[in-house]
Amino acid sequence: MSQVFHDIEKKIISSLRENPKQSPESLEGSTGLSPDQIRRGIEWLKLKDLAIVNESKASLIRLGGNGLESIEKGLPERRLLDSLKDGPRRLSDLQRQLGSAFGPAMGLARRNSWVRTESDTVSLSNEPAEIPAERIIRQIGRQKIPKEMVSPSELAILLRRPDFVIEETVKTKVISLSDSAGSLEISDSSGAIDVEAGVPRVFVARTHPLKDTIDEVREIFVTLGFSEIIGGMTQPSFWNFDALFTPQDHPARELQDTFYLDGILAKKIAMPEQIRRVSDSHRRNWRYRWDINEARRMVLRTHTTCVTIRHLAETRPDEARVFSLGRVFRNEKVSYKHLVEFNQIEGVVVGKGVTLRDLMGIQREFYKRIGIARIKFWPTFFPYTEPSLQTMVYNERLGSWVELFGMGIFRPEVTRSLGITKPVLAWGGGIERIAMLKYGLDDVREFYNNNLSWLRGVHQDAGS
Amino acid sequence: MPVVELSYSRLRRLVGGSSKKQIADLLPFLGLDVESEDGDLVRVEYSPNRPDYSTDFGIALGMQGLLGIKTGAVRLRVRRSERFHISVKPGVSRIRPFVTGVAAKNGRIDDKTIRQLMAMQEDLHFGLGRRRERSSIGIHDLDKMTFPLTYSTTGRDHRFVPLNSEKELSISQILESTGIGEKYGHILADSPKMPVITDSKNEIISFPPIINAAVTAMTVKTKNLFVEVTGIDRGDAENMLSVVAVILQSAGFTLEQVKISGSKNSTPKLGSREMRLDPALVNQVLGLNLSSSKIISCLKKSRLDASPKGGGSILCVIPPHRFDLFGPMDLVEEAALGYGIQNLKPVLSPSQAIGQASPVSRNLRYLSQVMVGLGYLEVLNSSLTSKRVLYNMTNRGEASKTISVREPKSQEHAILRDSILPGLLENLSRNIHEPYPQKIFETGSVFLEGSSIKEGINLSGVSAHQDANFTETKSVLQSGLKIGFGLKVQTRATTHPAFEGGRCASVLADGRSIGVVGEISSRTVEGYKIRVPVAGFEISLSDSILKPA
Prior knowledge:
The structure holds 2 protein chains of 2 kinds. By secondary structure, chain A is an alpha+beta fold. Chain A has 20 helices and 18 strands. Chain A has 2 domains: 63-150, Arc Repressor Mutant, subunit A (Orthogonal Bundle); 209-457, BirA Bifunctional Protein, domain 2 (2-Layer Sandwich). Helices cover 38% and strands 24% of the residues of chain A. Chain B has 4 domains: 3-67, Phenylalanyl-tRNA Synthetase, Chain B, domain 1; 78-266, 3-Layer(bba) Sandwich (Phenylalanyl-tRNA Synthetase, Chain B, domain 3); 273-340, Phenylalanyl-tRNA Synthetase, Chain B, domain 1 (2-Layer Sandwich); 359-540, BirA Bifunctional Protein, domain 2 (2-Layer Sandwich). A 7-stranded mixed sheet of chain B has the order 13-12-11-8-5-16-17, with no helix packed on it. Chain B has a 7-stranded mixed sheet with strand order 21-24-25-29-28-27-26, with helices on both faces. Chain B has a 5-stranded mixed sheet with strand order 4-15-6-14-7, with helices on one face. At the A-B interface, helix 11, strand 9, strand 11, strand 13 and helix 16 of A face helix 8, helix 10, helix 11, strand 21 and strand 24 of B.
């Protein structure tokens, strides 16, 4: 088997083939690599089961400061004896010559009867050929050697003297190749690296997952022949409610559901003829006193339907396929299923012969393209459409049906007042719900938490 | 949407001859959304246009129709009678002008029925009655009062024992010291005279729209009921009465007329309406080809009466509680429900229309791609934000005209943003444990108040890491706009409260300022507990690349 290795690994392997057991330090010498490169190389080889690392503890000894001084100048007692070779000396002379070493040297020489003292004169009596400590100091020299290599009794003598010898415990590593490394062929195709090794993580800059879903929804409707229109997020109540046949005392218009802009009234809301006909329809059908000032109050749009109805009232087309897409607002308590601000798409088909079944067909096609196969339709109620339906889609992950887009045909009370003569098929709904299915989320707030670990980690179709 | 609690076993008994599964499967096709289910109990949401679905009695009528057990309209049978009479005095015309009513006799009510009736009353008060302002109901024990009754006004010191009270209270006390009085007292405003219904012994039985008297309270022993509805519109009041009447009749009561006279009031008719329907409209709207007789049978399943009429049209008879039906289009929906929505097959008709996205969307999408190419991650924040995020944290002074919304449920969503950058800094502060560098951007709407509200679209980006600085950010902005849109921008020294002095510049396009770029001030960065330098920019796209040609 031929395997690709890093240069570091190659050098270590070939050095170990020549010299099978080595310490990291000796590998440094034999390969010319830095300690860090050796450390990394050994780790890599260990992970591949190619190197074996045996660790052991050892006691080493080396000379301390006084010991090293003795190599050069000789031990203090030897210096004392040497200075007596030419005849007896006075105590005070010797004291001056040997300094602080004089006391211990003199004590040792007297105890061993190497010298004699008469009044203040010292003379040589019996000079020894070798002093016991001299041999071990020579043996250690300037190296670190294992403790076992010296005579324990000699070491004990040296250990009694200050700073002559230092004992230390060290861990040693012995590196060798494993059996499987023996049969290894090292490929030397130049520049090859270990392509299987782990690499650092980088973060991908990307568009927001919800934006991706919004773009996907937009693209599907464009493909189905719909053109996008845009309109303001702030709207007079007239277009958000009145034009859509929602009476002025309807609960949906209360402060607790709808965001009204504080102290802002629209100056011009619509053409006088539109206002007259809409208010007539309200008076006639809902029987109350319609108030234009209520219609002037500015709201944050509660649906994008206000954008399409304004467009239809302006253009009064015989045929049209348009949609609008954007943020809508509800004065809700934020929870895992409710946001105060979310995205909605709303589309319409205007045409002479368009039917409820066409509307259902467009829905089915849309869901198919976004990847939702199981859908069904249930009746529902909206103030401005009749008949009204809602789509239920099957959430495979939760095993339950989820409500998605609402739809219907604009009521004659809506279209007639605005001079729209052809039937209008309309549908709309929140995009976050579709995105939740796509990304497998149970908490809609995640889209707006801007939690970088989620944004950096979530992948398309995480929900499937 | 209002919610009603149902019991499957009770419904099965009321519908007659149906299984639990049949009933459960049918709920959605009456427009009822199951909210929760617990054994025999199921809570469903119903549409506010169907107040008759506020009780299981009304829902059972609808189910009988769809199942074919009983079809056609439920006719109200109100026995003519001279025994019950309400005379209306002129004083009420200024405060709550109309009263109507019906007697319901020889019924049996158990605990569950009482609960259904109370829930129905609540829902009718809330929806149709607009929190009792437009109309409100009182249901009484008929045998605890003596006729004739009088609907008139009285002073605020008039005393009686209200429902759920042990002792006599004056009307003022009820309005000021009871929960219900405080909640609904505003409807009567500051009128010195209060509307009351009194019986022939001059005993108050009802103080609409606030509370009934304790003396006429219904119990499980009650056999005969008296229902009164008061309000500011006669049609509304009669509509509400018709819902209660059809429910009580379905609950087994025999209805008897209550005569009403005086001050523009009259005895309720509770009669059916007629409406013509062209079968061609049904087929045209639904995309079907049904015969007249098939349409008639569909309408009957929706509990309406229908019969063929001359000229191929259909004559529909609509019971009074179906006042939600305004015109023929509503009948089309009733026919569709009778036909069964599940039987309507979707069809994709060919279209020659060519669609396109708006130029604004296309440009914003392109801009996002450019920013992503420059290494920035896209984030999304709400347009509704708080003063803390928008002004305090960035040391920006409050704009002279902040656009705020009324009565927000959370102070985190109380004002419309005029700038995107503060939100991005807030995002960084919530991600200080995530690996750096962090580079994020957002495009979105901002709101400025002038003579009217001006909505604009801005782009903002921030970069946070050890070496983030002015030069890096200016490079990104300049290169992005140049490569993306051929827009050349220059910078000129300026100051901005969120940015570091001497490290901040206006962004100029064609000599006009479109935004700001620079290093975020250390004060702001520290305020957000961000531990690395931050540089950023914000520009108006509406004034630059999205400017209408």
